[in-house]
Structures are given as C-alpha cells and as structure tokens.
Design a protein that fits this description.
Elements (H helix, E strand, L loop, with lengths): L1 H24 L11 E4 L12 E5 L9 E7 L7 H9 L29 H21 L3 E5 L13 H17 L3 E5 L7 H6 L3 E5 L7 H8 L3 E6 L5 H12 L5 E4 L13 E3 L1
Parallel strand pairs: 1-2, 2-3, 3-4, 4-5, 5-6, 6-7, 7-8
Antiparallel strand pairs: 8-9
Length: 273
Amino acid sequence: MRFSISFAFIAAAIATAQAATVLEKRTVTLFPTNGKFDYQLGGAYTPPSGTMIVTRDRTAAPVVGIYNICYINAFQTQPGSETTWWKNNYNSLLLKKSNGAYFEDPDWPGEVFLDTRTAANREAIANILNGWIDGCAAAGFKAIEPDNLDTFTRSNGLLTKANNLALAKLIADHAHSVNLAIAQKNTAELGSSGKTTTGFDFAVVEECQQYDECDDYTDVYGTNVLEIEYTDSKNYAKTFQSACSARGSSIPIILRDRDLVNPSQSGYHYEQC
C-alpha cells in the first residue's frame, strides 16, 4: 500500500509538471497563407477590400477581423520626439562615435542606433521594447515586426551580428510569452540562424527581388514570408512582375511607395500580385 501511494504521488507530480510545461510553451498564430497584405507604416487607413494581413505602427490601433502585425523600431530610434525621448531618458543606450556624436542612420537622418554592445545595455533596451510588445498584445495585435535588425551592417564596425541577435532573442522570447509571433526583418545574411537560434517565426522583406535574395528567406521560412517592393527602385514595374511570376502564388507580395503614405496623400501607390 505504501508503494502504491508513493507511485500515485509520483505519477501525479509528473503529470502536473508536464501540464506546466505545455502552458509555458504558449502558442503563436501565423498569418493566412498568401492572404492579401497591406503595409501601413506611413499612417493608418482603411485597408483595401479583401485585406487579410496588415502591418501598422505600435501607436496605431489594429484592424478588427484581420491579422495585425505591430511594427516597432527595435534597433534604432524613430525620428523626432521619440529620439528626443531616448536622449533625455536613456542616453547611455544610444550608440555614439569616437568623438561622442550620436551614430545616426546614414539613410534616415534623425534615427539614432541603439547600443547593443553589452549585456547590460541589451537587457535595458529589451526591458523598454518588451513594454511596447506588451502594449501590442494588449491592443490585439497577433505579431511583432522589430525593424532595423541589420544596424550591425551599417555601424562602421561598432555593432556586431552576435550582439544584435542576442537582443533579438530577448524580445523574441518575450513576444512568444505573450502569444505573439515575431518577424525577421530583412537581413538575408542570417541564413537559418534567425529562425533556429533567435526564434523568428516569419520574415518581412523589402526589395528581395530587387536585390536577388528572396530565396534566402523562403528557403528558411517557406511560405511564411511577406514581401514589399518599392516604386522608386530601378525598373520597379518589371521587378514587381518578376516577383509575382516567381512567388506570387505562394506568398503575399505588394508594390508600395517608399514613404508608405495613405491613399489621400500624393505619391500613394499600392499593388498586389
């Protein structure tokens, strides 16, 4: 009898531990395969009819009834008031040159790189980003798009891939803990490590047809890739048609204006395959 009681106790303990493990794994939902997609970072607006997937800034509300992806600028600051906020409150987390000047994105003036070079910095940055991620989850978004993972390629050697991926792992783990999927944004040179090491669930890629690197993403993520081509690229119409011919039946592909403005503004452009 004593053995039976002990066996029952042990069996119950194992079952409890297994149940806890299942709860800890959490589940994420990916977007509908090849669903109609819109990319709205220049301002929120009513998506085109039939849209099933939309990306919006974390400060915008998600669209009811479709798959919403929450954009956060995770490796550098947004220009204007957000950059000022970082400088006033977290100046030590901003990357600086040897002369003490802030390291700004050469293509997007006013956006300062975040300094991922130390574990302490990465933990502090992740603490801020994870608060934004919690806000996305509470608002009803289903996924996170953390932008500018590739700052290490544009930092004149100050930042490293390993350190940026270490920060990405911190926010990926947190996103999963609140049941949000998380995207690898661009950065084709990661190969499979973005998925296998960092934990990215899908990819959001810009101009992969233009730069002949789309296979680098689809080889890793299969049909879980969202592709955006832009109208200011050389031979953009031909590029877009080539992308549609190659992958349009498998993944969502759109052609947009570079500034991603809304339909009421000059320069707006939207096409899908």
